[in-house]
Every structure is written in C-alpha cells, then in structure tokens.
Amino acid sequence: MPQYGYAGPGMPVGGVDLRRGVRIALTVMLSVTIVTMLGLVGALGEERSALEDVLGGNGSHADAVQRVDDAASFYSSMNVLYLLSFLATAILWVIWFRRARLNAELFAPGTQRFGSGWAVGAWVTPVVSFWFPKQMANDIYRASAPAGPQSAPKGLLNGWWVLWNAATVVSFVGTVSERIMEVKIKKAAESGVYGGPEWHDAVDAAKGAMSLSAFAMLLYIAAGVLAILVVRQLTRMQEQRAMAGPAGVPMGAGPYGSVAPMPGMPGMPVPGMPGAPGSGYPPAPPYGAPQNPFGSGPAGY
C-alpha cells in the first residue's frame, strides 16, 4: 500500500493567489496605524497632564483650561488620522484575509469550517467577532502548513488574538468611562461648581479613564506589531505550501511533480506476477456473480 504525504513535492497548486500587492499595502497601513496610535497615546498623556494642572492649581485657572482645550484639540486631530488609517487598514485586512481563506480551500478542500463570506462578516458581526475570526485563522493555518496541519505554528497567531481582544475590551471600558466623566464635568461646569468635591472627583475619574484608554492603545500597538508578523508568516507559509503541490501527492514523487515510476498502479496486477494475465492475452473474467462496486446497501450505498 503506497504511503501518501500531506504535501509532497510537486508542481505549484493551481489557482492560488500569491500576488504581493495587497500584503505589502496592508503591512504599510498597519505601520501607519501604529504611528497614529502612538500619537493618540501622546495626546492622551498631554490631556491628562493638563487636567492635573487644573486640579493642582498650577498657574492661572484660565491658562490651565486653555491647555486642556489645546490638548483636547490635538487628541481630536490625531483621532481623525487614526480613524482614517484604521479604515484603510481594515479594508485591506479583510481583502487579504479572504484571499488567504480562498487559498486554504485550494490547499485542503473541504477543511474550512466557514464560507469565504465569513472572512469579512466574522469581523463585523457582534459577539461572534470574538471567536469566529480566530477559528477561521486556525483553519487557514492548518491548511497552509507545508508539513501538514499538525505542524501549523500558532504561537504568533494566538498571541496576536489575545492582545487584539484584550485591547478591544479595555478600549471599550475606557471609552465609556471617558464619556461618562465628560458629561459629569460638563454638568459641573454649567452649574458653576469649579473646585467643588463633585467636580474634583469627576476630573480625577476622567484622568483614570484616559489612562485606561492609553493602555488600550498600547495593547493595540502591540497587537498591530504581531499582526504584521502574522501577515508575513501566513504569506510565507502559503507560498511554500503552493510550491509543495496538491495535498495527497505521493512522497518521493519524481522530478517536476511527476510520480516516480512504479511497476503498476495500486491494486492493478502486473504482467508476469501471480494472478495476473500473461502478456498478450486478454484478462480472464472474474469467477462468481458480478460485484456491485458501490456496496450491497440500498441504492448501492
């Protein structure tokens, strides 16, 4: 019985999309987004420092308030840049991810748990976005591993996914806290109770919310760095897997993907061997009644 490998050497798998344009553009935009997030961290730090001046009474109250306004304007500008870069990155990401999913189907047909449409939908569907994309990525990694599904390296993928989800949760909590504190500070300002206990508590809580948002950005930055490495790793795996040939190519295949010479196909008697017809004679009919090649069950199943 011949032994078949998962990805023996052979001709490249047909139909695999290995164009590098999207991957390069995605890597560039991930880097740009990381830079804008660093700017957001700096803006949050400046805004937090300005609030400390207000609480501490450093300088005149008018100057401190002006510094808070300037810091808030800087944060708003950086946030616009971040959102634009994030949107471009997200579009490139789903294009690249869907392409990787389609390639995986060519490498190992029938092994993907999700249709290619989920390569986009999994990221924007509430609740399931916390695990559907990771399950899809696991399937893609297993199908793309050149040495077989069990050899797929997932340490980098797992680390990126943990950081991404952690950053998402922390960012949500920080954003909600900031909005609540902004409302409280605005109400205190409108009532003219600057310097009162309620106002101090609201400003102090706002500082904590900003620190939480800055921490979320740092987590996103770390996740962004790992995302670049994941893109590079999976792209390299798929390139190697494509050159390995279709799954099921016999190990020890001949050069250029041709099967090495064999005395006969599996299960086919070779002339001159016991049980085989002699050379030049028609094969003898089998003994007994003809056998159903599909089995003896209903309808041949």
TrEMBL record:
User: Which superkingdom, per the lineage?
Assistant: Bacteria
Q: What are the alphabetically sorted keywords of the record?
A: Membrane, Transmembrane, Transmembrane helix
Annotated region (Disordered) at 272-301
Ranges for domain DUF4328 come to 65-236
Q: By its UniProt entry, which InterPro entries does this protein fall under?
A: DUF4328
Pro residues bias spans: 272-288
Name of this chain's protein? DUF4328 domain-containing protein
Q: Organism, per UniProt?
A: Streptomyces olivoverticillatus
